[in-house]
Amino acid sequence: MGHHAFALSLIHKLHFFIGIQVDIYTFNIAINCYCRLNRVDFGLSLLGSLFKRGFTPDAFTFNTLLNGLILVDKTPAAVDLFKKLMRMREIEPDVVMYGTIVNGLCRTGNTIRAVILLRIMEEGSCKPDTIVYTTIIDSLCKDRMVDDAMKLFSKMNEQGIHRDVVIYTSLIHGLCNFGRWKEATEMLKEMLNSGIAPNVHMYNVLVDALIKEGMAKEAEEFFDVMTQRGVDPDVVTYNTLMDGYCLHGHIDEAMRVFNNMVDKGLHPNVFSYTILINGYCKKMKIDEAMHLLREMPRRGLKPDTKTFSAMLQDLDVAIHNVLINAFCKDKKLDTAKALFYNLSSKGLHPDVKTYTMMIQGLLDEAKELFVKMEQNGCLPNDVTYNIVIQGFLGQQKYHEASILLKEMIGMGFSANASTSSLIVDLITTKGLDPTLREVIKKFMPKDSHGMHDIE
DNA sequence: GTAGGGTTAG
Q1: At the fourth CATH level, which superfamily is domain A197-296?
Q2: CA angle in degrees (0–180, nearest 5) for A29-A35-A135
Q3: Which of A289, A324, A395, A454 has the smallest number of CB atoms closer than 10 Å to its CB?
Q4: Per-residue pLDDT at A90 exceeds 90
Q5: Which nucleotides of B are covered by protein (CB under 7 A)?
Q6: Nucleic chain B: which protein residues 272-301 of A have CB below 7 A from it?
Q7: CA-to-C1' distance for A68 and B8, Å?
Q8: Domain residues of chain A, as ranges?
Q9: pLDDT score recorded for residue A432
């Protein structure tokens, strides 16, 4: 017996044998079950059945079906059905129906159309609520239009529409994704001040932002903060932390977090394994990756296509990195460059190691060129010096940078604004690294007040 | 008693 027939026979039995009143609620719940299982097709058959039984579908029925269509990427069909319902005027579209369509449009890359629908709502009698605004604000952030999202957010406030933890999560996530930490922090403060408590979703966004930014210690601290405030870290929290560690090449730390999670009695999911397998593949540790892959079925998990394609991709990039590194060291930069472009022609993404090696290689080439220009009687000017110094600073080659700084100052040139701000950045982020101290001494005027703090 | 929004792999 198919699912559909089973549902119908169940409804039949409920009605005749158990004596439960079968009504439109029963059908709506059954339709929703199908839709959540990505089987809107069965849901639509039930719509036919309920008609035959003399029931009239209501707003719940249609909203559930519209959402079911969107869940299986049939948003155009959902929009058609929505338009048909509007034309028939049997069912007055409510805020949930608008919200569902807005979500469908956003999920299919039509945020602009969703915004148009929002305008229609604002002018009509069915006013948008927090959920409609959240859907659009989240989508704007994901489409890199964070400023528009912020504008919409303040407009909501003017209209007195209440804000909840979900809308703050969307905005803070968007702000963090674009490095707008200050605004994100302000948002968080604003939320806490208005008495809204962060939940596990919000904490996960914050942990993600911190660990990706290299602030592992602070991210870990959130585990304690969460627990103290009665919000238990979940699998996503652990996965987020693991992913962050892998991103920075700290696979051992990621494994430690994984073991902590298991000790806490939480069940790792396919994400957990894919993150770790990726981490090992990026380091070309195939044995460890395979070991984890074989462990999955024992936990009742099935690797999906993403697990495998990520593995292949990581290994491919790792192999390219090994070759690029070798050719850079041999000063075969043309070959290294060819390999670098080969990555993108294969649809692969160079990682931070690839870029660092290429920049390093090009910088070495630049250094040679720098020496060569002087030998050929063409003296570098302030622009040349500044660019090369910035390159060395970026490569954390503070010794070379300080030599050139001294040379440049001796020639009567000075550090330009971007070199200065780079040095200031380094001081604020790195503190007073002993090798960096050397640069600062060259950079700072002898009688500067700041020197007292440094010495 | 039933419907719509936010988090982690690529």
Answers
A1: Tetratricopeptide repeat domain (1.25.40.10)
A2: 105
A3: A454
A4: no
A5: 1-10
A6: 272, 274-275, 278
A7: 24
A8: 1-90, 94-196, 197-296, 379-454
A9: 59
3-state secondary structure of A195: coil
By C1' distance from the Cα of A244, the closest nucleotide is B8
Q: Which nucleotide is nearest to A170 (CA to C1')?
A: B6
Do residues A71 and A38 touch, judged by C-beta distance below 8 A?
A: yes
Tell me what pLDDT residue A415 has.
81
Q: Which of the pair, A90 or A104, is modelled with greater confidence?
A: A104
Which residues have a Cβ under 8 Å from the Cβ of A404 and sit 6 or more positions away? A385, A388, A389, A392
Same fold, A94-196 and A197-296: yes
The yes or no reply on domain A94-196 and CATH 1.25.40.10 is yes
**Structure-token pair, residue A388:** 């090369």
A354 touches strand B (CB under 7 A): no
What residues contact residue A162 under an 8 Å CB cut-off, 6+ apart?
A: A130
Q: Quick one: tokens of A213? A: 């930014």
Strand B and A199 CB separated by under 7 Å: yes
Residues A297, A371: Cα–Cα separation, whole Å: 59
pLDDT tens digit string along A388-409?
Answer: 888 788 777 788 787 788 888 8
How far apart CA A411 and CA A401 sit, in angstroms, is 15
Q: How far: A28 CA to B2 C1' (Å)? A: 6
Q: What is the mean pLDDT of residues A316-342?
A: 89
Strand B within 7 Å of which CB atoms in A 69-98?
94-98
